[in-house]
Structure formats: structure tokens, C-alpha cells
């Protein structure tokens, strides 16, 4: 292959592997799409995309290589928390559904059963 073709292929691979990583902040309701590999009864490996939707309790280490964020939801009366590495190759997409106005960097108090309703950004309180 010529040098031009090699550089062209490298550029294409670079742009395909780059993902748009959104700014995930505490108080956001997000839907995280993650690739999951499973083995069926025949022994064949299948890959599917599963999403986990919940509220972001904490985002740690900014945009570093080891950055992560915690997502929490209540499923059938049981609280479920997942920690996602931000730069994980298994995460295909992060959809931001809502953004709440928060005054804390970590919202762990929501796990303890505080039924406080977070106000959405731009929402005014009732007089």
C-alpha cells in the first residue's frame, strides 16, 4: 500500500473510534447504552445493546482516562446503582433525558430514601 492510502485508513479508523462523550453531571437523568456479550445454549456468542436509565449520583475524575459516573434507579422497589467507566469501549451511547438543578457534587442522599423531587433546570417554584 502507498503512504497516502495508509494515512487515509488511519484517519478513518481514528474518526470511527472517537465517540462523542457528553458532559455527564450529577442530577442528570441519563440512558446509558452498553454492549453485552452473552453465550447461548448452543455455545454461540451473541452481542446485544442494553440500556440502563437512571439519575447520575456522582461523576468522578472529569475527563481523565479513569473517569467514571454512578447511575441510580429504583427497580421494583429495589435501588440499583451501576458505576460506568466514561471511556469504556462497551458504552455505545449516552443519552441525556433531563437535567435537574442541584447544589451538591454528590447526590448520595437520594439512595437513603429521601423522596425529594429535584427541580428541572429552568423550572420555577410555585408561589
UniProtKB/TrEMBL annotation:
A molecular-function term among this protein's GO annotations: structural constituent of ribosome
UniProt organism field: Candidatus Falkowbacteria bacterium RIFCSPHIGHO2_02_FULL_45_15
Function: This protein is located at the 30S-50S ribosomal subunit interface and may play a role in the structure and function of the aminoacyl-tRNA binding site.
Protein name in the entry: 50S ribosomal protein L19
Biological process annotations from GO: translation
Annotated family: Belongs to the bacterial ribosomal protein bL19 family.
Cellular component per GO, a single term: cytosolic large ribosomal subunit
UniProt entry keywords in alphabetical sequence: Ribonucleoprotein, Ribosomal protein
Coiled coil ranges: none
InterPro entries (alphabetical): Ribosomal_bL19 (IPR001857), Ribosomal_bL19_CS (IPR018257), Ribosomal_bL19_sf (IPR038657), Translation_prot_SH3-like_sf (IPR008991)
Presence of the UniProt keyword Iron in the record: no
